[in-house]
Amino acid sequence: MDLVARCAVEGFFAGLHPSPFHGFSVEYSDHREYHAGDELKFVDWKVFGRSDKLYIKQFQQETNTTAYILLDSSKSMSFAGAGAVSKMDYGSYLAAALSYLMLSQSDSTALILFAERVIKHIPPRSRRTHLNIILTALQYNRPAGQTNLAGVLHTIAETTKRRGIVILISDLLDDEADIFKGLAHLKFLKHDVIVFHTMDHQELNLDYEGLIQFEDLETKARMRAFPQSLREGYRKRVSEFLDNIEKTAGNSGIDYCLLDTSEPLDRALVAYLAKRKRMM
Amino acid sequence: MSFTEWIFLLGGLAVVGPVIAHLLAKPRYRRLPFTMLRFLRTGQVESQSRRKLRDLLILLLRCAIIVLIAMLFARPLLHIRLKPSESRSVHCLGLDNSMSMAYSNGSGSYFDKLVDSAVDYIRSAQDDALFNICALASGDWMQGLGKEQALAEVKALKIEPGSANVTDFLSGLSRAGRVEHSGDEVSVLVLSDFTPNTLRQFINVVEPAAINRIDYEPIISSKPVNNAAIADAHVVGLADGKLTINAFVVNYGQVRQNRLLIARAGANRSAPIDINLSANQRNIYQVQLDVGAAGRQPSFLPVELSLSDGDGLSVDDIFYLAVSIPGHEDINILLAGEGENQMFLLKTAMDTLSRTSSYDVLRIKQVSMSELAATDMDWANVVVCSAITDRLVDLALDIESFVKAGGRFVCFVTEAVAPGVAKQLWQHDILAALPGKCINERTYIQPKPTDSRAPGVDHIAARSLSNYRIDKVVLKGCLECEPHPDARLLWQLQNGFGLVYLKSLGSGTSILVNTSVDDSLGSLTKSNASVAFCRYLLGESHQIDEYCFTRDERIVLPMSGRDRIFAGQEQIWIETCDGANHRAVVADSSVLVPDPAGIGWVKTLGKPTIYAGINLPQGETDMTKPVAAELAGVMSRVFATGAERDVSEAGVYRDKKNRPLWKIFAWTLILLLLAEPAVAIRLKR
User: Fold this and answer.
1) Residue B26 touches partner A, C-beta closer than 8 Å
2) pLDDT score, position A19
3) Which domain holds residue A54?
4) How close is the nearest chain A Cα to the Cα of B15, in Å?
């Protein structure tokens, strides 16, 4: 997991996240007048010597954001179509890569694994050793349970105190309206929300042949059909579903990225981050 | 619709198979865990109904295929009820174009009259009448002809070199009748000379043919019949270069015949012989044909016996007789016996054989065993020794040379055989078996040789020996013989020991007979089997063969002696009577000739040339006129008209027309078989 995260990130993304916060760090930003209560150690004594006025030095904090990585661990994420990588694995690699990226920039990174409810919550830390904790959690994470994405998003919105970047990695197989209510809740709390929608190639295209009994991974519902006769309608409906999500996400100011698990992870990540950099 | 073989309809029950399979079969599917079932569900109902429809369609297709196959085997017939206005006149003409119709009385041949009568009959028929014409000699049917077509066919009819075949005509009439309907007026016209042969065939008909009307016309001359024929011929013998042939000449007519009989073979011809035969008289005439050098060497002579002109049917005045002459050969037989009287009985049998032989000349010389010399073997073709003695050991090398050069060495063994002597001859490969100890017990000979077709012995004599009840002859004893590895045991005794052993050495033959001359052959002589036994021991006889067939016979040319050159070939080329070349099949030791296509010669192409004479069937030469009353009775019995038609099975004319439907069923079946996979594949999409 660590190796995958390193390979995906190393050399590409360092320094891509200028912080939106101003604080007291090493890089000078501006001066302001001293007010009572300011710490004296930030007083610029050289300016005081020249002008006999007290000014406080301000520094731009380079990395002080908090990233909340939300990984859907419901049973549907275990689906692996034609390829060997399941959506769960793909999402884990993505989460690992993003964690590595964040922690490399000293961003505080939290990992939240959820299905019907939050399964595991690793609070945000910016220490480099925090990565090991995240990777261990990802490694031993097993998909189970049904999806209750909306409920989980509300829970997270209510429990996160500090605003930051919320990265949701999920197949979004839940009620679309509820999902976006949860995401809107996060957005309302000034979180920067990014949705990585992981889908298997077969889920997108339904390239099966012959008589197949489909069994739902979460509900265990069964359906027997010739996929070749359903393919056209299926693709149409899936396309409508994806369009609706993308459109709704765009309207809500949520970054949305559809990831096909048949595509290499780094390629998808590079494409997305490059796009995000252009936007900033 | 009905079915001719309705029992096959039971095969339609096989549809139960696919129906049960359809009901019981569960569709094969694979399980697949999936996530987005909600996107599939809307199409589910459509998919399942489509699958059910597909299964039902395929089931129906397969059931239809099975039912169609059953119906196809049941031979469906469609009954079409015809309107009365659709009834037609159907005329079936049986026209005798056999060889006897070539008879001419000076004012045109019978056949010309037949054609004229047939043409008049057709012209007098209605314009919309249908004609079915049968040529009686060839048995060919021309059916469904219009008036003009029928006229053209009748005018194109030719005489066939064979007899009229009434059976073919009547069976064809029945077949034709089954496809007509009761509204049709079916008339039959038979035009023939009604020779005794033809009339006999009509008499022998068991089931009458049901028709509406029968017309027949005997094509005969008002004048007395003038016809003589060579009915048969056989070779009597060949002596001094002259072939003697007996010709059987018959006067079939009422006119006295004063003719000349001549035999020809290439450029050679016999002196004419006067034939004087009163009405219906028959006689055998002997013709002597000088064949010159051909009589002294193997040859094949095509001999034509002919009568001079003077009667109404010339085609039966020539008789074709192929004669196979094996070549003249004198056989010198040396009989060597220990005593003067020892070979008496054997010599008597040989003398008898020489007198009965029609071709071979047997010269017999008798010597004492002690006087037997090598010079005797230079003269002899066959050396017969009564016993194995020391003298034979002295002459062992000469005997070996004699046999290797093609001689035949026949050796009897007596009770007392010196073991050393026999052993020395055995070592020279002269003896076919080594005599051992004596078995002094009474025994009998097997009824006939074990292998009557073994090479080196006379086959005819071998077969004829079984007629002498030779198994009743008692032998006082025999010797226990050990056969040479190259020898064959031809004849056995009933106690299991061998009687005759044969061995080939070089181009000659050595025979050992396991019994003494005095005891056993004496007994054989008393049983009258000695002559045949001597013929058997002397080997294949040289006989004159005749290859002579009639047009109706199956022609099989037996290959013997030099003709065996064809053995090993599967086919050879032959020339038939019409001069055309055809392939003939060689099977076993004979050549199977296909249709000879006429009267005359059939011969093999290539060397040696084998001829076969093809002659007119004897019935065709008898031109005796039919008695009108008898003919009328026969025809009324053979062709049932009026009320008799309803009870007849020979011609069932129903009021419906039966149209076979098998073609429609077959095409439908083929289409369904083609459509089934296409439909199945299409619906699976």
Assistant:
1) no
2) 46
3) 22-60
4) 26
